[in-house]
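Our preliminary data section would be incomplete without showing what the modeling component actually yields. Below, a chain of 288 amino acids is followed by its predicted structure, encoded as tokens that our downstream tools consume directly.
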Amino acid sequence: MNNSFFDDLREVVDQFMKQSGGKMEKDFAGKLLLPAMAVVAAMLAFSSFFIVPPGEVAIKTRLGSIVDSYSEGLHFKMPFLESITKFSIQIQRANIKTQAFSKDLQTMNAHLVVNHRIQKETAISIFRNLGPAYVENIVDPAVQEVFKAITARYSAERVISERNALVQELNVEVKDRLTKKEIIVTDISVVDLDFTEQFLKAVEDKQVADQQAQMSGKLVEKAKRDAEQQIAKSRGEAEALRMQREQVTPSLIELRKVDAQLKAIEKWNGVLPGYVGAGVPFISIEKK
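Predicted structure:
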């Protein structure tokens, strides 16, 4: 029953469309076709051009084959047949985190920053040989390998004390390796370098022990100097006494006695003592 109703309704609609809607359908289709063609034409027009901004280079490929490289500006390409891949020729920053071991097998975690760039003249070669992901495929592994090889030649203490020399050596070796790949490395920085807590504690204890040893050495040196000064002083005093003994003669003794008597006379007030010797009194003579 339901099916017969819908079938009858469909027949009525078809007859109505045949009688009065044929012309309307053509007009409606014509009105839709023109805007659709305009939209398609606009899309084709926009997709026929590409813009390369300053600091970039574009590689155009046609059906998988490299056509050419293009500098900044507006350029033409064939829609659907040609595609564009852009590379930056400005200095780029690559953050690389890695783990390495020192010569004495101490673990270190390093954060490296590699500033690099490519040239327009080598963009096609890099695109063909290395691909757009050349940083992940070439730069990152090369830097990690060189860094690990260099740190393996340094003890952990030298890595800390001679960090500048390590960074300089890293720059030289990485630049030499990546230049062969047509990648220009401007500089590499080691922005973070961490050791294990056990190693840092051992280094701190060693520094404290070294400082204490240096302080003890200074105290020993001071004691030696003081002893040497005391010995020199004693020797000087003994030498002075010896020279004085050599200069003492009977005449000098008599002269000293006379000096003593003269000093006693100078100090005498003119009054004779009441007793001398074994209790014998002096006779006092009064002046009149």
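The chain has four domains: 1-47, 49-87, 91-195, 202-245. The radius of gyration is 54 Å. Preliminary results of this kind motivate Aim 1 of the renewal.
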